[in-house]
Amino acid sequence: MAEQDVGVGQLLLAEYQTVKDEQKARIGFRDNLLYVTLAVVAAVIAAAAQARQASMLLALPPVCVVLGWTYLVNDEKISVIGRYIRGELGPRLAALTGSADVFGWEAYHRGDSRRRTRKIVQCVVDLLAFCAVPLAALGVYWGGGAVSPGLLALSLVEAGAVVGLGVFVVRYTVPFGGGSGGGGGGGSGSA
């Protein structure tokens, strides 16, 4: 194989494509986690209703916390990739080419006047899917009457985990990336 001359610009563009591919894969995975959560919630509620066992609802909090945390971590990585492109790759390629406008879309799509509203709505959706539903399930269990001491203790731990997840969801959304410096959380797909 003949030796090829690979320039710094080509390497930066190859890195850009690689991180964009990772970002795209993470976006698809993250967004599917909402559908998985809805399916699991529906299945558990249906099973609990059919069996008339409110204690079966105690399966929802750990499942929602695991899926919600995975969603949140992927959302943060999506945002980190965007920040890396805007803060590292773009400026390096701009310096190399002498162009001030490199990867313009990476900044342009973030300037939408409705972005703030979308981020807030997405935060509410995330809190409903991953926190409100399992807390409601716990409320149904607690209000169902037959609460054993062991399951009560378990349910209180689960409630703490769900509330903790809710804090992280809000923290990573407000003020639009408070978790680690920008853009993460809330499932906005901000990159």
Keywords:
191 residues; mainly alpha; 5 helices; 74% helix
List strands and helices in order, with pairings:
Layout: H1 8-51, H2 60-97, H3 104-108, H4 115-143, H5 149-173
Helix pairs in contact: 1-2, 1-4, 2-4, 2-5, 4-5
Structural class determined from secondary elements:
mainly alpha
Low-confidence stretches: 177-191
Mean pLDDT: 87
The major sheet is characterized as:
none
Number of strands: 0
User: What's the tally of helices?
Assistant: 5
State the end-to-end CA separation.
38 Å
Describe this structure in words.
- This protein is mainly alpha-helical and 191 residues long.
- Helix content is 74%, strand content 0%.
- The protein has helices at 8-51, 60-97, 104-108, 115-143, 149-173.
- Helix 4 (115-143) packs antiparallel against helix 5 (149-173).
- The chain is elongated, with a radius of gyration of 22 Å.
- The two termini are 38 Å apart.
- The model is unreliable at 177-191 (pLDDT under 50).
